[in-house]
Amino acid sequence: MSEVDHRTLVVPDGLDGQRVDVAMAQLFGLSRSRAAELIADGRVQLDGAGVSKSERVLQGAVLDVEIPVVADPLEIVPEIVEGIKIIHDDASIVVIDKPVGVAVHPSPGWRGPTVVGHLAGAGFRISTSGAKEREGIVQRLDVGTSGVMVIAKSEQAYSLLKNAFRQRTVDKTYHALVQGHPDPLSGTVDAPIGRHPGADYKFAVMDGGRASVTHYETLEAHRFASLLEVHLETGRTHQIRVHMAALKHPCAGDLTYGADPVLARRLGLTRQWLHAVRLGFEHPGTGDYVEYESEYPDDLQHALDVIRASD
C-alpha cells in the first residue's frame, strides 16, 4: 500500500466563502489542479462529507484531506542485494562483482535493486561527490550486463578515477559471445553512437552520434558463435551491443539488437551474453597499477558450454 499523509484543518476567517480547491491550495500548499485531483479521487471531506471542487467552504468547517505520498524515484533504498560480491575493499575504493538485474544507481522508471543501495545497506561509506543518487559512482554497467566495477569511497578517489575514465586511461575488458564469426577475426569499430530515432530505449550507429571506439579480438570460434575479448576506448551506453549489431554479429541473447531468439532459447539466455571480466587502473590511493577480475556467472558459462559442445 502507498503511504498517505492525512491532514485535518479548520477553515480560518480569511477563507470563508472560497471554493474548496482554492482553500486547499492556501491551506496545504497544493496547486489547484492537484487539489482538484484529490477531490475527484474522493480524498477530501468537508465536515465529514464528500465535496466537489466548486463547493464553498465556511469559517470553522473541518477540512479532511488524504494526500498520497509520492516516492522519490531517485531515493537510495538501503538493502542487501543477493549476488553482489565484494572483490576488493580499502579506504579509497570498493570493487564489486555486479550480477545481472542490478542497476548501478536509482533512475526514473527503475524499481529494482541497485549497487548504491546495496553498499548503503551493507554499511559502506562512499564518496559524496556526484549527483545525490549516484554519489561515488565513476562508471556504469547496464542492468543487463554483469561483471567487475569500481566505486570511489574517498573524495580524492572519486576525482582521480573520474578523470582517469574521462582520459581513457582505465583498461576495461569485456568478453562477449556473438553470433557467427566477425570478419576480420580481430579489429576496431570506430562508429558514432546516438539514440535510436525509432525507439528511445535503444541506441544505434548514426551520423551526429558521439564518437565511439571498440576493439575486439576473437578468442574462440565455434560453429554458431564466437567468443570475443573486447576493449573499450570510449564508454557509451550499450556500446558493445550496438557495435556488434552493426557488424551483423549481435551478442547472443540480445533480442533488443537483433539476436536470434531460437539460439537464445537453445542457450538458455534471457539477456545478452556480455560480461565485464577485467578492470585495470592506477590506484587512487597508492598510485600502483591494479587489476581486478570477475568470473563468468552461471548463465553465461552454461551458454558457452552449449556452444562449445555444438562443434
From TrEMBL:
Domain RNA-binding S4 positions: 18-75
Homology family: Belongs to the pseudouridine synthase RluA family.
UniProt-listed PANTHER family: MITOCHONDRIAL RNA PSEUDOURIDINE SYNTHASE, RIBOSOMAL LARGE SUBUNIT PSEUDOURIDINE SYNTHASE D
Assigned EC number: 5.4.99.-
Biological processes per GO annotation: enzyme-directed rRNA pseudouridine synthesis
CDD domains: PseudoU_synth_RluA_like, S4
Molecular functions per Gene Ontology: RNA binding; rRNA pseudouridine synthase activity
Protein name: Pseudouridine synthase
UniProt entry keywords in alphabetical sequence: Isomerase, RNA-binding
Record field: catalytic activity: a uridine in RNA = a pseudouridine in RNA
Stored InterPro entries: PsdUridine_synth_cat_dom_sf, PsdUridine_synth_RluA-like_CS, PsdUridine_synth_RluC/D, PsdUridine_synth_RsuA/RluA, RluA_PseudoU_synthase, S4_RNA-bd, S4_RNA-bd_sf
Residues annotated as the enzyme's active site: D142
Function of the molecule: Responsible for synthesis of pseudouridine from uracil.
Enzyme class: isomerase
Alphabetized Pfam families for the sequence: PseudoU_synth_2, S4
